[in-house]
Amino acid sequence: MKNKAFSFILLALILFSLGHQSKAEGISVDAGLTPAQDRIIIRLQYRNIINRMGGNDIRVHMMPMVVAYGLTPDVTLMLRNIYRTVGKNKTMMEMNNRWMDPFLMGKVKLYRRNTRNYSLGVAGFAGTTFPVFNSSVSKTYNPVIGVNASYRPGLWSFDLNNACEWVNYNTENSRTEARQVHLNLAISRNIFLPGLENWILSPVQEFSLVNNNPTSGESDLIGYISPGVQFVSPHLKIEGLYQFAVNGSKASGIEYGNRLILGLRLMF
Amino acid sequence: MKQTRLKLTVIAILLILSANSTETFAEIPYHQTDTTEQDSAKQERVVSYEVFGMDCPGCQSALEKQVNKIDGVAGSKASFKKKLVEIEFKPDANVSDKEIEKRIKKANFTPGKKIKPKNNEE
Lengths: 268, 122
Hints:
Mean pLDDT of chain A: 81
Helix content of chain A: under 10%
Oligomer: heterodimer
Distance between the termini of chain B: 68 Å
Helix content of chain B: 40-55%
Strand content of chain A: over 45%
CATH class of the domain at 46-117 in chain B: Alpha Beta
Structural class of chain A: mainly beta
Strand order of the largest sheet of chain B: 2-3-1-4
Largest sheet of chain A: 12 strands, antiparallel, barrel
Largest sheet of chain B: 4 strands, antiparallel
C-alpha cells in the first residue's frame, strides 16, 4: 500500500515537472462514483477548440492527460496536465505552445448504494491548479470545489457534475479574477455488441453550462450540447464527443465555438 | 478334426470378442470416472458470488483485480451482465467468505449471496 502511494506521488511529481492550467468538462461519466482501491486510470484526450474574438479565429489544440488513483475505496487522487498548441490565432492575444499549470484534485465518496436494479453515488471533490511554471497569465492558483452525483438504473447512466472554480484566485489587482460555475449532465445507455462479449457501445448525450462571473465586468453564460459515443472494454475506453456551443452572452468579447473531443482511457 | 477346428474357431472368436469387449468396458468407466473426478474437483475449487454495482466492462476488471489479490485465489471472472463474479481457488486454499466480501467492497461494489457453496470446506 505504502509502495503504491509512493509510486503515485512519484508519478505525480514527474507530471508536475512537465506541466501547466486545466479544465475538463466533457465525458465525465464516472462523476459521483469513486473507483476501486488501487485502481489506476490514465486518460488521454485531444481537444480541438475554435473560439472567435472580435471576428478573428483562435484555434487551439489541447491535449490533457489525467492520472487517477484509488487511494482507498472512498478517496481518489487525480492529477491533470494539458499541453496546448495554437493552430491559428489572428487576435492580438499572445498565446504559445506550452504545458499548462498542473491540476491536483481529491474526490471523496459521500454516499453510495448498490442494489440489484440500480447504483447511486454522490462524491465531493476539491482541487486546484498549481502555478509551478508560471506559464498562465495570472501566475496563481485556480481552486475548484464541487459535488457529483451518479444514478445508474440498469443499462442507463445519469451523471450530474457541479463545480465552482475561482479563476485567478488571490491574484494581483491588475489581473481579472472570476468565479465560474460549471454544470454538466451526461446521459448514456449501454448497448451490447453481438459477438463481442467484453465490449459495449455507449452513446452519450451531454448538456453543459458555464457561468463566468468576473469580479469586474459583465458575466458570460456559455452552453454546450454534446452528443458522443464510447466503446468500453475491461481495460480500455475509447471516447468521442462533439460539443455544439450555445452562446448566451458574449460580455467578455469571446465567442465560444464548437469543440471536438477524442479520448482514450486506460484502466488497470 | 472338423469338430476340433470348429471348436478352435469358436474359441478364437470368443477370445477376440471378449478382448474387444474388455477394452470397451475398460475405456468407458475409466473415462467416466476421470470426467466425474475432474468436475467434482472443479466444483470444489470454484465459487460464485452475486455482486451489485457493476455497470460496464471496466467494473469487471476493477473487481477481478481486487479478488485476485486474495491469497489462495487462482483467478476470477466477473460479469456485469450477470451481476456476479466467479472465483477459482488454488488447491488446498482456505479462503473465508469474509475475505471475499471485503475485497468486493474495496472495489466499491456490494456482495450478494453466494451462488455455489464451497464443497471443500468439510
